[in-house]
Amino acid sequence: MLPILFLIPLLLSTTSHASNQDFCVADLTASDTPSGYPCKPAANVTSSDFIYTGLSAPGELIKLINAAVTPAFVGQFPGVNSLGLSAARLDLGPGGVVPLHSHPGASELLIVKSGHITAGFVDSANSVYIATVKTGELFVFPQGLLHFQVAAGKKGAVAFVVFSSTNPGLQILDFALFASSFPTPLISKTTFLDPELIKKLKGVLGGSG
């Protein structure tokens, strides 16, 4: 009984602290840190901090992949700071693709708004999970795993994605290999790709080395 009585003040203190910290709107004038942005003073918080309109319009398609990803991370949407979630809009033209990539800091939920998207991921046992996701359907990508999205059929597609982090991070496999200064001999050694093919891909994506 005594240990329980001892915990009551601690629980009350924790509850009181939580009620005073309903949100922490990011102060984007300060520097980001591993624990996130500091909070904007509560007196300066307004309703506009909790709405973001940047996903209402299509993004500009990147010619190489015929796709656009428009983020609503903490840097664009300060109201999500400390809440453990963020979002993005995905626009895919016909044949558009978001190449193999991973988000080290978050799982991802894909919600298809229009069209069909073939989506999939590879797990740590090298099992592959692929599905064609239709309008109104959802697909989930576990945190840190390589995954992709491709417009299915002859039309484009639009989707929204939700992340389990305010800043999920991003590493695109092709760009890491072929848009960087990663030396060609080492890429060949570690991937078993032909050096001439690597040089060709570096020429397309702007890499060196």
UniProtKB/TrEMBL annotation:
Span of domain Cupin type-1: 53-199
Signal peptide from the UniProt entry: 1-18
SMART domains found in the cross-reference section: Cupin_1 (SM00835)
Coiled coil: none
InterPro entries given in the database record: Cupin_1 (IPR006045), Germin (IPR001929), Germin_Mn-BS (IPR019780), RmlC-like_jellyroll (IPR014710), RmlC_Cupin_sf (IPR011051)
Chief localisation class: secreted
Keywords: Apoplast, Disulfide bond, Glycoprotein, Manganese, Metal-binding, Secreted, Signal
Subcellular location: Secreted, Extracellular space, Apoplast
Family: Belongs to the germin family.
Name this protein carries in UniProt: Germin-like protein
Phylogenetic placement of the source organism: Eukaryota, Viridiplantae, Streptophyta, Embryophyta, Tracheophyta
Gene label: GLP1
